[in-house]
Amino acid sequence: MSPRPDIVVVGGGPAGSTVAWRLARAGCRVELVDAATFPRVKLCAGWITPTVLRDVELDPRDYPHTMQPFRTVSVAVGDAEYETRWDHVASWGIVRAEFDTFLLRRAEAAGVRVREGARVQAVGVDAEGVEVATTDGRVRTDLVVGAGGHGCPVARALGATADDEDVVVTQESETAVGADRLRGLTARHGCPELFAEPDFHGYGWYFTKGDFLNVGVGALGGAPVRRRLGGLLDRLRATGRLPADIALTPFRGHAYAIRRRRTRRLAGARFALVGDAAGLARDVSGEGIGPAVRSGVLAADAIARGDIGSYPARIAAAFGAPDRLVARLLARLTRHLPESVLFAAARQACTRPGLRRRLVLEGAFGIG
Q1: Candidates 3.30.1330, 3.10.20, 3.30.420, 3.30.70; correct CATH number of 167-254?
Q2: Hey, CA dihedral for 355, 359, 365, 368, is it positive or negative?
Q3: Where are the domains of the chain?
Q4: For tag attachment on the chain, is the N or C end more exposed, with fewer CB atoms within 10 Å?
Q5: What is the DSSP string of 225-267?
Q6: Alpha carbons 271 and 18: distance in angstroms, whole number
Q7: Confidence (pTM)
Q8: What pairs with residue 134 in β-bridges?
């Protein structure tokens, strides 16, 4: 029988693998459980910033899978497309199935006991610790880390405080097409191409990463996401980016909460939440890999120091503290401002070079 782990991590994505890896290196007995078997399909526009690489201590030259450096991002507003260029590599495109598996196997090599195909059914806390019940047995531990995404069972059991989160809904597809074919479809091969939704409540993307094409759309409210996706696909076909003979893999949907309001408890005496389980995706853009990895680093450091209580403050220092009152005031303000004013402000942010670079790409997306 395996010794009782000090920490159980629920979820093997970037947040879960990062926190498990760092805790194992610190000498903790760590067990990680995930309902999937890796490599598993995980759709994501899929780029990582220089900050992410520093947090996971990874040199791109040492990474054995798809890692597409890019220096240019385009943003389309209406029929016009605007480019922003950097004089250095701004970020790197990755394939999530590859990237997540790499991080998980690295954690396993560091000593983490990984249990795949084990779905968590219940999480309970008592005087002796935490019991995590899964489809292949129960495990007791001193502390559990929830890293299971928006619907994480740890978050539901221990961290939920409200039902009125600001949730982004997406539809996306990733297809192996071949780099040579993709280069013939877009002059911006290897660079993210973003398309602002007409109401600026979301955006679509077309991102060629080596042999892979990722297409998707995400939005916070407004028109149904399927209707938005249809409009994006029509545009891609009309501009030659998506020929009729390319059969995209079936589109999949997922949801995640953006960090706008304080709706989840991030930690308690026996638990901590990281990544999408903590609702840490960037506001406006919905970018989640960076916050997932950074929260994994911060949680692991707090746990290793025996100071889990400091974790929420560390998150607030890193990302800013969401405030319900401020969110409500902003919501009221936007309801009373004319739609034309909000539309004009969003358009200016996307089309003016300085604003696009600083507010949208570097600010909201973390690129560059």
Answers
A1: 3.30.70
A2: positive
A3: 7-46+95-165+258-319, 167-254
A4: N
A5: HHHHHHHHHHHHHHTTSS-TT--PPPPEEEEEEBTTS--B--E
A6: 16
A7: 0.91
A8: 120, 137
Select 7-46+95-165+258-319's CATH number: 3.40.50.980, 3.40.640.10, 3.50.50.60, 3.40.50.1100.
Answer: 3.50.50.60
Place of tokens 């990237």: 99
> How buried is 162 (Cβ within 10 angstroms: 0-12 exposed, 13-18 middle, 19+ buried)?
exposed
Is the Cβ–Cβ distance between 246 and 173 less than 8 Å?
Answer: no
- Give the pLDDT of the chain (368 residues) as one tens digit per residue: 578 999 999 999 999 999 999 999 999 999 999 999 999 988 788 899 999 999 999 999 999 999 999 999 999 999 999 999 999 999 999 999 999 999 999 999 999 999 999 999 999 999 889 999 999 999 999 999 999 988 899 999 998 766 667 777 899 999 999 999 999 999 999 999 999 999 998 999 999 999 999 999 999 888 999 999 999 999 999 999 999 999 999 999 887 776 665 567 899 999 999 999 998 888 777 788 999 999 999 999 999 999 999 999 999 999 876 544 444 444 554 556 566 777 888 899 999 999 999 999 998 899 98
